[in-house]
Structures are given as C-alpha cells and as structure tokens.
Design goal:
mainly alpha, 82% helix, elongated
Amino acid sequence: MPSLGLPELIVILFIALIVFGPKKLPDIGRAVGTSIKEFKKATKGIIEDNEKEEVK
C-alpha cells in the first residue's frame, strides 16, 4: 500500500475544505478521531481474546 506524502495530504485537505467548509471540518475531524480510537480499542480486545484462547 503506497503511503501518502505531504503534497497528497495538502490536496486532500484542500478538497475537504472546499466540500465541507471551514465550520464543519473540526466536527468531521473529531468524529474521525473518535472512530479510529474505538476501532483500535475493539481490535485490541479481539487480539487479547485470541491470545487468551491460545493459552488455554
């Protein structure tokens, strides 16, 4: 999977600014951050459950 460089991130942020406007971007960023945090927490729980089952 190719990684995104600085120019690509700037273009993505610029397009998001045009599409959503400056008032919505903080809300969208907060929602994305919360979603990523919950996803990491869920995957961590699944991994811990799998490790417990392997030990038994």
